[in-house]
Amino acid sequence: MLYYKLMIDQKVRQRVFELIKAIPPGKVATYKQIATLAGLKNPRQVGHILRTDPAATNYPCHRVIHADGTVADGTAFGERFGQIVRLRQEGVVFRGRKVKLDIFGWIQP
DNA sequence: TACATGACTCTTT
DNA sequence: CAAAGAGCCATGT
To answer: The pTM is what?
Structure first.
């Protein structure tokens, strides 16, 4: 029925948010990592959820960044700097525009 | 059904 | 190291 697809969606969203909530302060995770752990094929879907779902504001989504260590522009943090500042306050160090994922990455590849 | 759009990622210049 | 192009897939029109 019509609800089936939506319920799956809800479950995946829930999973994504639980994962984001599990990222410790001072650490970061990539869209790809979250997508993989949540069972999503495409990391874009994670970005899509964070952009559309109002519940995203209740979670530390500033700890989710690109796979190359840069942060996304045009986020709900207002501007790109907002996210960087928040991460800096948690102790995340930037080298140029990137964070060193081998040090601050929540999950090591 | 078809086409455009992204809080993306990878490879190649 | 930055920029460009291809691949990706849920969503919206």
So the answer is: 0.91
Per-residue pLDDT of chain A in tens (109 residues, 90 and over written 9): 455 555 558 899 999 999 999 999 999 999 999 999 999 999 999 999 999 999 999 999 999 999 999 999 878 776 667 899 999 999 999 999 999 999 999 999 8
Q: Give strand letter and number of the nucleotide nearest A56 (CA to C1').
A: B7
Q: Residue A97 CA to B12 C1' — how many Å? A: 22
Each as own residue / partner, the long-range contacts of residues A69-78 (CB below 8 Å, 24 or more positions apart, any chain) are: A69/A97, A69/A98, A69/A99, A69/A100, A69/A101, A70/A97, A70/A98, A71/A97, A72/A47, A76/A50, A76/A51
